[in-house]
Amino acid sequence: MKSYHVNLGAGLAGLTVKEHDRPVPGPREVLVRVRASSLNYRELMILRGNYPLPIRPDVIPLSDGAGSVVVVGSDVTRVKVGDRVAGAIFPHWIDGPFGWEYAAQLGGSLDGMLTECAVLSEEALVHIPDHLSFEEAAALPCAAVTAWNALVGGQVLQAGDSVLTLGSGGVSLFALQFAKLFGARVIATTSSEEKAQRLKALGADSVINYRRTPDWHGAVRELTGGRGVDCVVEVGGAGTLEKSIKSIAASGQISLVGGLAKDASTIDIHVLRSNVFTLRYIAVGSRAQFIAMNRAISVSRLKPVIDRVFPFEDARAAYRYYEDGQSFGKVIISQS
């Protein structure tokens, strides 16, 4: 079998392919034939050397992947041969709040999913919705679970609430789709009219072009009658957090996913004191949240937004395309 390998800070030039024997699962472990995997911003952070969690040397990358169970080790009870599954990024985080004892992660301190076959703990596995292809299911573990946690992991979203999403990355698109499932009103920001139309087609009630309206928090206030939104799914970090604070309703919630902005700066303490709100930093989500999300996806027949699918042998090209930052939806690497 073949697998890709990377090292922290080695860049895309350090992405190599190795051929080795197919691994054998031990007790309570499962061998999964990986059929598809997907890219997230964390993968670029690993290549650039600025990912905050430990990365093992020569790790098999990608936290996200889906496939079928081909071999089960002894004492396995949660899955059987032939089951269609995905791996939870934090295999030891079953339920409840996150703790550092759960920080071991696929594609980081543990080998990930950019491989033909992966040995995973049975505790890491989640059955995928029947109506999704492997490519669609591979989009779920990081971005979708993060968006789900952002909306329901703290103050649970209610029908009639308003949600602000930023841009058209994977987390933001899933947050838009999930918010509409809850019956919420969604205001989205974006950089172009073309993307605005695509966001509206996904269900966004209002879209603000942040290039035309740099002070978009004022537009959010206008669209909500001065009240502000109940929830912000914040993916820009310090680069946009001040405007998100100015957009949130009193006692609303900002779910901070990450600091993606290249020009991120410090936060003005006076802005922090200007509103009454809850700020949560999101570390993806637990296996229980993954399972709950999949139930909602199955009932609603929701489909992830896929931008482009690359074959396994063109994984390097998939990385380059994703790094360019022009994708709308998930970038998938397929072995089907």
Molecular structure report:
By secondary structure, the chain is an alpha/beta fold. The protein folds into two domains: 2-139 and 304-334, Alpha-Beta Complex (Quinone Oxidoreductase, Chain A, domain 1), CATH 3.90.180.10; 145-281, Rossmann fold (3-Layer(aba) Sandwich), CATH 3.40.50.720. It is 27% helix and 25% strand. The protein is built from ten helices and 15 strands. The strands form three sheets. Strands 3, 4, 5, 6, 7, 14 and 15 form a seven-stranded mixed β-sheet that branches. Strands 10-9-8-11-12-13 form a six-stranded parallel β-sheet, with helices on both faces. The longest helix is centred in the last third of the chain and has 14 residues, at 287-300. The radius of gyration is 20 Å and the shape is globular. The mean pLDDT is 94.
Structural class designation: alpha/beta
Inertia-based shape: globular
What's the helical proportion of residues? 25-40%
Multimer state: single chain
Give a short synopsis of this structure.
The protein is of the alpha/beta class and 336 residues long.
